[in-house]
Design a protein that fits this description.
It contains 19 helices and two strands. The protein is mostly helical and 457 residues long. Strand 1 and strand 2 form a beta hairpin. Helix 13 packs antiparallel against helix 14 and helix 16 runs antiparallel to helix 17.
């Protein structure tokens, strides 16, 4: 029986739009305040975003070679399987399903409802309509949860219908998002009420450990730069277009993030920025242009978060599709829709689990516990590049990583430093995250056992 495969219908602009949308979500609205508090200095704060951008771009170039070498659905699941075997690959896929993509989708969808509540108060209403106790937790239905689930369901319906309508919606959302951010940057510096004196060094600056720890939320905000690798199986001429989309998409995000953070400091002193609660961008817009600008930024946030959820609805299910195709996930997830050509069951599975996380509210805990795993597994994928080059020297990729071995080496070292620092500085949530990751091993054993039974049958 032939292995199911997806049609190549995406171009480099489509893939770059997925990267931009996947990366620019709620992170850049919320994490700058955390980074400001950890660094304590305006130059150090911008420096963290610059270092994080370099790490992300170095990682993107490492993924570019891996994706050109193995242009299949699944991203690092495919690369870890080739370099380290099926167990390591399964753990990254399991983490993506239980928390990485599904948890981020749930958190973003709830954030979407919260911003929408600024204009439609019912959308952000957290009043309990119904509750179903389930042991230590409960499924809690609120108006906010209904709006969040409606967003997930609507985007799921669009992307189940295939990459044709999906990419149109994705490209429109990405275009609106980037246009809004560029307008904010241009008008913020040219017309806004800011001060370059805010960049003067502070008397109390953060420590080196704080700088490295600040890279965790920064890298979380950059996470998604590898999104094109998840859909490599659907990109035309992947040897050319996947590296191009990774370079253009990641480069655009790094440039936007750096300019936005310079604008943040231009608008607010570092101490005030660190004390900001909620969306930093709302405060910045109101400071630069007055109270009406806060509503404009809320609209931009709504569009940005919707684009992010849309991108994750494209990328995440390709991982589960690849796992199911290798018989280490539910078999149904490998089924391709007979009409639309999409991995429909995998898309629906992610949507259902994301909805459960919305109803339980557990996405915030998963987010806290497994945030470091984004850096961990992407760093391991960087190691996979070295392993595959060493193990299979005759297998030449159509794209060679720029600056090899320095660029991918720095990416791997930086990733290891971030994970180690998170373990030392926040051992309890990091250990809980490792427990969640390793908790997938019993499920892997079950899938493998069932796969052997099918093979022997």
């Amino acid at each position: 029986m032939a292995r199911p495969s997806l049609d190549r219908r995406l171009g480099p602009i489509d893939a770059a739009a997925i990267i931009v949308s996947n990366v620019i979500g709620s992170g850049i609205f919320l994490t700058p305040a955390v980074v400001a508090s950890l660094t304590g200095d305006p130059i150090a704060m911008v420096g963290v975003w610059l270092v994080g951008g370099f790490i992300a771009f170095a990682g993107a170039m490492s993924y570019a070679e891996l994706a050109a070498l193995r242009p299949h659905a699944g991203g690092e699941y495919v690369y870890l399987r080739a370099a380290f075997g099926p167990v390591a690959a399964f753990l990254t896929g399991w983490t993506s399903f239980v928390a990485g993509f599904s948890g981020a989708v749930a958190a973003s969808a709830v954030g979407f409802a919260g911003y929408l509540g600024r204009f439609v108060p019912t959308a952000g209403d957290t009043r309990v309509l119904a509750a179903l106790p389930l042991g230590p937790m409960a499924l809690t239905l609120t108006p906010q949860a209904l709006v969040a689930i409606a967003l997930i369901a609507g985007l799921t319906w669009i992307h189940v219908r295939g990459v044709g309508p999906g990419r149109v919606v994705q490209n429109i959302l990405a275009g609106l998002k980037v246009s809004g951010l560029v307008a904010l940057i241009v008008f913020g510096f040219s017309l806004g009420d800011g001060a370059w004196q805010h960049f003067q060094p502070t008397e109390v600056s953060g420590t080196a450990g704080g700088f490295i720890l600040a890279l965790v939320p920064v890298m979380f905000s950059y996470s998604g730069w590898n999104a094109a690798s998840y859909v490599a199986e659907e990109i035309r001429n992947p040897e050319r277009f996947v590296p191009r989309s990774l370079a253009v998409g990641t480069g655009a995000v790094v440039a936007l993030y750096l300019l936005l953070n310079v604008l943040y400091v231009y608008s607010l002193p570092i101490g005030e920025l660190a004390a900001t609660r909620g969306s930093v961008m709302d405060h910045i817009a109101e400071r630069l242009f007055g109270p009406v600008a806060g509503d404009v930024m809320a609209v931009l946030a709504i569009v940005s978060i919707a684009a992010s959820v849309s991108a994750m609805t494209i990328a995440g299910p390709r991982v589960y599709f690849a796992m199911a195709r290798d018989r280490v996930f539910f078999r149904r997830a490998a089924v391709i829709h007979p009409v639309h050509g999409s991995p429909a069951a995998a898309i629906v599975a992610q949507a259902l689990w994301s909805a459960v996380l919305v109803l339980t509210g557990s996405f915030s805990s998963l987010f806290t516990y497994t945030g470091f795993a984004v850096v961990l597994f992407s760093g391991i994928a960087g190691v996979a590049l070295f392993v595959l080059r060493w193990r299979r020297p005759d297998e030449t990729s159509p794209f060679r990583t720029w600056g090899y071995p320095v660029m991918p080496g720095l990416f791997v070292i930086a990733s290891a430093a971030i994970v180690l620092n998170a373990l030392l500085r926040d051992p309890v949530p990091t250990a809980a995250g490792l427990a969640i990751i390793l908790g997938g091993l019993p499920l892997y054993v079950v899938f493998r056992r069932n796969s052997r039974k099918m093979g022997s049958g």
